[in-house]
Amino acid sequence: MTVTIVGSQLGDEGKGGVVDLYGDAADVVARYQGGDNAGHTVVHDGEKYKLSLVPSGAVRGKVGVLGNGCVVNPETLFEEIDTLHDKGLDPDVRVAERAHVILPYHRVLDGIEEDEKADLAAGTTKRGIGPTYEDKAGRRGIRVGDLLDPDVLRERLEYVVPQKRALAEEVFGADVGEAFDVEHLFETYREYGERLAEENMTVDCGTYLQDRIDAGDNVMLEGAQGTSIDIDHGIYPYVTSSNPTAGGATVGTGLGPTVVGQGEVIGIVKAYLSRVGTGPLPTELGGVEGQTPGYDPETGADTDEEELATYIRDEGGEYGTVTGRPRRVGWLDMPMLRHAARANGFTGLAINHIDVLAGLEEVKVGHSYELDGETVYTMPPTTEKWGDCEATFKSFDGWSEVDWAEVAAEGYEAIPENARTYLEYVADELEASIYAVGVGPGREETVVVENPYE
Ligand code: IMP
């Protein structure tokens, strides 16, 4: 059977921990979209592994698959695999021949275009994700399978690279280097192709996964990012360029919708909101200069809200891992979650980080929005309308700090009662059961209510 893991908010919900936990019972963990814009840390046998592309299951002896819906940067892929080898592991990673390849010019263009877009910039990770998906849709992309055939690779590069070079030089006035040089790219990527072939890493993803399922294996389908930054169902244009939603699990692997639908679809929810980048956020607390639209720390700050925001930000470690920039934070947004529950058809929920909210006297959620004189319970389709929404809050009594490791060991009933009331409100509203509750950053700090593979 399959278990699909989907972020239900804006990414960074703590999917990695759940994938890691439930992945124990899986034989194969397959990613179905995105590329090295994701990021997770896996701790195994006391050793920390930071991965952005290779599925975390590969650290634990599972087969890790990058599905056809992914965009693969071979440089990152082999760097991560080599690091795992250096640490004494022998990861089994397979890559779909239909997956698209991120080339150096994609990264360069991602940076240039973000700078040009100013207010419309999505604040991308600059890994070339968007430009690679653009080329996929424009039918000028290079696929993993093309790296295996030098004639095809050369033909594709000779067609596409002059266009990219002209775009960079003539439209954006940029200086271009070897990232736009056909010969250099051909040699480098042909070698990647040779390595993929030598190590027998490429697969016809749908066939491979279906064969494993037919043989009785458990397959986990791992979404990256989250529903509200899905290119179709998210807050366009502040989105990533793929489909983190559950539909992406079928087109991004080649498994039929009925196969994925017969399995479980677990929505990962963070108990509050955090966001990197600009655009509206109706349940935001306080603001962050340069990210919250119209925010002026001199005049715009409500001291109580700012204090709350700082508390949650500090407790949750909501600072950029690379830049150290504070992330925007806010209360849970139920219309956002109702939208996610419908778009993904969640069968279960994993709610993370309830420990971060411990110690607050009152915990609020945005229960609904007021929009143009009406009460609405789900997200409007345009980001501008979402920006017009005023959240109507519901209040819950807070819960105190407890020994969360003990709670995790004892089980659901050991969670403080007020926190359980909060969790059950969310589950009732989304009409999905609670499968797991995250009470701390470690994998063992999770209360497991249900194991989807059992
Ligand atoms: P891209 O995926 O690099 O094109 O970035 C597009 C948008 O998605 C930006 O707002 C990024 O901050 C966001 N994004 C991409 N990956 C992640 C993630 O793993 N977590 C949270 N946000 C992400």
Automatic annotation (TrEMBL):
It is an enzyme of class 6 (ligase). NCBIfam families: PRK01117.1, PRK13785.1, purA. It comes from Natronococcus pandeyae. Its EC number is 6.3.4.4. SUPFAM superfamilies: P-loop containing nucleoside triphosphate hydrolases. IMP binds at D12, E13, G14, K15, N37, A38, G39, H40, T125, R139, Q225, T240, R325. Substrate binds at T321, V322, T323, G324, R325, P326, R327. Plays an important role in the de novo pathway of purine nucleotide biosynthesis. Catalyzes the first committed step in the biosynthesis of AMP from IMP. Binds 1 Mg(2+) ion per subunit. This is Adenylosuccinate synthetase. PROSITE patterns: ADENYLOSUCCIN_SYN_1 (PS01266), ADENYLOSUCCIN_SYN_2 (PS00513). It is found in: Cytoplasm. Homodimer. GO terms for cellular component: cytoplasm. GO terms for biological process: 'de novo' AMP biosynthetic process; IMP metabolic process. Pathway: Purine metabolism; AMP biosynthesis via de novo pathway; AMP from IMP: step 1/2. Signal peptide: none annotated. HAMAP family: Adenylosucc_synth. It catalyses: IMP + L-aspartate + GTP = N(6)-(1,2-dicarboxyethyl)-AMP + GDP + phosphate + 2 H(+).
